[in-house]
Model the fold of this input.
Amino acid sequence: MAQAGQRKCRSCAQFFVPDRRNRTRQRYCASAACRRASKIASQAAWVGKPENQDYFRDPCHAARVRAWRAVQPVANVRVHAQTHQRPVDRFAEGQANLRPLHPVGFNLARVCSVRVSPQFRVALDANHYSVPARYAGQNLLLKAYPDRVCVYYRD
Ligand SMILES: [Zn+2]
Done:
């Protein structure tokens, strides 16, 4: 039961006494986990506002971050906490094992058998593709690539 002046924490649901300087606004208790939850919630609320959606997306911000990265290239050269190695060194080791991409590329087609409608069309997803009229009523092989659709008659 809440005592006078106490409030229920939004994170842990325990009753706490808000700091008197912030008693009308404090919604989370002072424990580290709840302060972290408060920070996450307030940042998510800020990012969720429509006026803040593009706040850091201006070209001036991109240039600022690029300039900062150029002077402080820390991410790739500091010792990693788990591996105790620098990522740049690990990449140099692993680079010897990398092989070039296959020159022909991979076959990414989705293959299916389709029946040609009496209006000599084949259906793929929500689209209809016309084929030569002589294939009406036949079964054809369809290969759907990311950038094109190929239809085959007898291999
Ligand atoms: Zn709490």
Notes: The first helix runs from residue 32 to 48. Strands lie at 7-8, 15-16, 110-115, 121-124, 127-130, 139-144, 149-152. The two ends are 77 Å apart (CA to CA). The CA atoms of residues 76 and 88 lie 6 Å apart.
